[in-house]
Design brief:
The complex is a heterotrimer. By secondary structure, chain A is an alpha+beta fold. Helix content of chain A is 32%, strand content 25%. Chain A has 13 helices and 16 strands. In chain A, the strands form four sheets. In chain A, strands 3-2-8-9-10-11-1-12 form an eight-stranded mixed β-sheet, sandwiched between helices. The longest helix of chain A has 20 residues. Chain A is globular. Chain B starts with 16 loop residues before the first strand and ends in a 13-residue tail after the last strand. By secondary structure, chain B is an alpha/beta fold. By secondary structure, chain C is of the alpha+beta class. Helix content of chain C is 35%, strand content 31%. Chain C contains four helices and six strands, in the order ααββββββαα. In chain C, strands 1, 2, 3, 4, 5 and 6 form a six-stranded antiparallel β-sheet that branches. In chain C, a hairpin with a 3-residue loop joins strand 3 and strand 4. The N and C termini of chain C lie far apart (58 Å). The chains are: A alpha+beta, B alpha/beta, C alpha+beta. Chains in contact: A-B, B-C. At the A-B interface, strand 6, strand 7, strand 13, strand 14 and strand 15 of A face strand 1 of B.
């Protein structure tokens, strides 16, 4: 809905959390835990990573103190919102033997109403991508749907670009343009600390109505725009996405796959931190008496040895094949499957890879005619 | 591409429906056919080529092609080979026991497209059951198709599935007396076997058919399908007329778990039946 | 045009194995071809026989067997209508390895190996053409055997 941009003072953040809690939302947001910024239950604005900034590089993540008290002065950590919308472990059904057969009981646990505070533009894109996967095909995932439909999203525009970020290359940021209920840009300058915000939905407008706000002045709006423009110009990485599907389809036997396989540990960190990776496995359990059983679903990774198990062995035995599967899925086959790239340019896979494999570099090596002869060089 | 037929809208595609085992047939030492009836009485309508996920209580699920008559859906029929924990549990079920069913899933065989022309079905080993619904369809609508052939390769004569039906089909599938629509060959045989011994592709040169108007449908180990494709192309059939039923690891059968991907295709929802051109660049490529 | 048997000539001209041979050679082969009919149970040749002929099977089913004491015989493979049998004709010193027993009444055309060998020595072009074709036959038999050795329909392990 058309509504002019508004301005908030920092005190309004607490009002926002209360307004959401009054409406029955479980508010979630970034917090510092064990040296990283993760997403968890957010009860008070003070619990946000106030005054923290992250430094990221291949295989490196460190937190440093900022010189200011910004609430959102960092980029993304190892968590993504998929851990709430697409839970890592979920019971699908339980069943019990009865009358010579068995009854199937769908999972009855109440689905929480989540309010996500501090969702970055790349994450909005990731959520939209998972919406396509779980809701856009011939079947819908009811568990994802139930959580997604109720989610309230407060987006935050990034005030600085991470060293492993490349959202600008894939067109997913840094500005949040769609998919949020409210979006905020934090400004700390000229002795002032305030937010310029946008309303993204009718529900967002309602919630805004319950907190202290005022229209943003044209100057404030231009400052907010400038923040985003500056962020876009300082991306740490870039990826040529034009023609990347054809590039990868035509280079499935490129020697670079062998080279990256010599470094890759197939640990699956990348798939865990990636906000769009969605693969799962199922497990069936019974009690000792064999009277009750249940099936649970848990996150899985195409890097595991038996992910592709078939007829006594795996289809993708080598690390080379598994890395190739992950990267070509993310950037190439995903396009044929879902009509968009699977990658949002958040850089998590680069940061959280223990050996710092950088997919922008891998694609560059395959596409740029650069053939690495020394592995790991 | 054959358009998939999905099950009627259900709230949760991951919940199994209970079916009672109405009949068990031991086909061979490691293969059994289960005939199932839905506890709620609703027949499961399917297209030949589709599969279900069968749930053995507490053990797990396995994807199994439906091997029955699509025009008689009151009994849901599956022919299962015991190769692992789940299939072993399914093969061990007895009449009256309950099994969970999800589905039907996937794309079916191109029966519409094949009308008016000749049909060649090539089945290797446990590949015959997924083609049996096609044979039933052809029998129900015999005049709509030209010459029909079933080439069936098995390990030994003891491993042949549906031997009585094979004999019957020799007559019921043929258009003219004396023609041999059913050609069976085995890899190895004792002296009492007076049929063909050799690879199933050896049966292709002898077929009387019009290569320009023939649809081929094949199921079997991937190696066998690759050399069958070569044999059929040599015979003059065209790639768009060749259909293969592919297999990959499956957990959900609805395109969510990611396990069954073969290049850009989800075998569970884009397949399992694929036209050969769809597999261009993927079939025969190692580790995809 | 074969004076002796125009029907043989037509049959050979349409048979994929002989496709590409010039009409003169096809006519010569058609003249040479001796029709042979065997009933089910009869033997086309026995293990140890000299390789005196090669055959085109027009109709029927033939089975290659290795008989062995105590087990009767072992089946090597069967050969269908349209097949060309007897590739060892090119090597006069090689004798038949297996028995060839007729399972379904067979109509064959037999070609005397000695005559063909003599002609090929004189006409190397024909010799090379037949070599290429029989190489294909041997290659196909080899590949088929290899595929069977894979035991593809066995239990997956």
């Amino acid at each position: 809905m058309e509504q002019g941009r508004f301005a908030l003072e920092p005190q309004a953040l607490e009002q926002l959390l209360h307004a959401l809690e009054r409406r029955g939302y479980t508010t979630l947001g970034p917090q510092v835990r064990d040296g990283a910024i993760v997403y968890d239950r957010l009860e008070r604005p003070q619990d946000l990573p106030v005054g923290w900034v992250d430094w990221q590089e291949g295989g490196t993540y460190k937190l440093y103190r900022r010189s200011d008290q910004a609430f959102f002065g960092y980029t993304v950590g190892p968590d993504s919102w998929k851990k709430f919308l697409h839970p890592p472990v979920l019971r699908l059904f339980s069943t019990e033997r009865a009358d010579g057969g068995f009854n199937v009981q769908a999972e009855l646990e109440a689905v929480p109403r989540y309010a996500f505070i501090g969702v970055r533009a790349c994450e909005l894109r990731a959520i939209a991508i998972q919406d396509k996967v779980f809701l856009g095909g011939p079947y819908q995932d009811p568990h994802y749907k139930a959580r997604r439909e109720q989610a309230f999203i407060v987006a935050v525009n990034c005030g600085h670009a991470g060293n492993t970020c490349f959202c600008a290359s894939v067109g997913s940021g840094p500005k949040a343009t769609a998919g949020f209920d409210l979006a905020l840009t934090e400004l700390i300058e000229e002795g002032r600390h305030y937010f310029v915000g946008e309303v993204g939905s009718g529900l967002g407008a309602e919630v805004l109505g319950e907190i202290t706000h005022r229209p943003a002045t044209p100057y404030e709006q231009s400052r907010a725009d400038a923040v985003v423009t500056a962020t876009a110009q300082h991306m740490g990485r870039s990826l040529e996405t034009g023609g990347v599907k054809e590039l990868l389809y035509q280079n499935l036997e490129h020697p670079r796959w062998e080279a990256v396989a010599e470094r890759c540990l197939s640990c699956g960190n990348c798939t865990q931190v990636c906000p769009t990776c969605f693969c799962t496995a199922v497990e069936d359990h019974t009690d000792l008496a064999g009277q009750k059983a249940e099936r649970t679903r848990r996150w899985d990774s195409c890097f595991t040895a038996d992910f592709s198990y078939l007829h006594g062995g795996s289809v993708r035995v080598s690390t080379r094949a598994r890395y190739r599967q992950w990267l070509t899925h993310k950037l190439a086959t995903w396009q044929d499957q879902f009509g968009s790239l699977g990658c949002v340019g958040c850089g998590r896979c680069i940061t959280w890879c223990p050996v710092g494999i950088d997919l922008t570099q891998e694609v560059g090596a395959i596409g740029g005619g650069y053939v690495q002869t020394e592995p790991g060089a | 591409m054959v358009s998939p037929i999905s099950s009627p809208p259900r709230t949760d595609p991951m919940l199994p429906r209970p079916f009672r085992v109405a009949r068990v047939r031991r086909e061979t030492a490691d293969v059994a056919t289960l005939e199932l009836e839905a506890l709620d009485g609703l027949p499961l309508n399917f297209a030949p080529g589709q599969f279900t996920m069968l749930y053995a209580f507490g053990v797990g699920e396995a994807p199994v092609s439906i091997s029955g008559d699509a025009e008689k859906p009151e009994r849901l029929v599956h022919t299962i080979r015991s190769v692992g924990r789940v299939t072993q549990a399914l093969c061990g079920l007895r009449k009256g026991e309950t099994v969970g069913v999800r589905g039907p899933f996937g794309s079916g065989w191109p029966l519409e497209r094949a009308r008016g022309g000749d049909v060649v079905m090539v089945a290797g080993g446990i590949g015959l059951p997924p083609l049996r619904p096609v044979i039933y369809h052809l029998l129900h609508h015999r005049k709509e198709y030209g010459r029909v052939y079933l080439l069936y390769g098995a390990r030994t004569p003891d491993d042949l599935l549906f031997p009585e039906e094979l004999k019957r089909w020799q007559h019921t599938l043929s258009l003219a007396p004396g023609s041999s629509p059913v050609l069976v060959t085995v890899d190895r045989a004792p002296e009492s076997w007076d049929g063909a011994v050799g690879v199933v592709t050896g049966l292709i040169p002898g077929l009387r058919l019009d290569p320009a108007h023939t649809t081929a449908m094949m199921v079997g180990p991937e190696v066998m399908m690759r050399f069958t494709v070569t044999g059929l192309l040599e015979r003059g059939l065209k790639a768009p007329d060749l259909y293969l039923s592919m297999e990959r690891n499956m957990k959900c059968a609805v395109g969510f778990c990611g396990h069954c991907q073969l290049g850009p295709h989800f075998v569970c929802k884009d397949g399992p039946v694929f036209a050969l051109p769809q597999l261009n660049g993927w079939l025969g490529r190692k580790e995809v | 045009m074969s004076r002796l048997n125009p029907e043989h000539e037509r049959y050979l001209a349409e048979h994929p194995f002989f496709a590409g041979l010039n009409t003169k050679d096809i006519a010569w082969l058609a003249d040479l071809a001796r029709p042979l009919e065997l009933a089910a149970g009869e033997y086309l040749y026995h293990e140890g026989d000299p390789s005196s002929e090669f055959y085109v099977m027009r109709e029927g089913l033939i089975r290659l067997e290795a008989h062995t004491p105590g087990r009767g015989f072992l089946i090597i493979q069967t050969l269908e209508a349209g097949e060309v049998l007897g590739w060892s004709w090119m090597m006069p010193e090689v004798r038949k390895t297996f028995d060839a027993r007729v399972l379904k009444a067979a109509h064959l055309l037999a070609f005397e190996a000695e005559a063909v060998r003599r002609r090929c020595e004189q006409d190397h072009h024909l010799g090379y053409e037949l070599c290429k074709r029989f190489s294909r036959v041997i290659g196909d038999r080899l590949q088929a055997t290899r595929f069977r050795l894979l035991d593809l329909y066995g239990q997956p392990h």
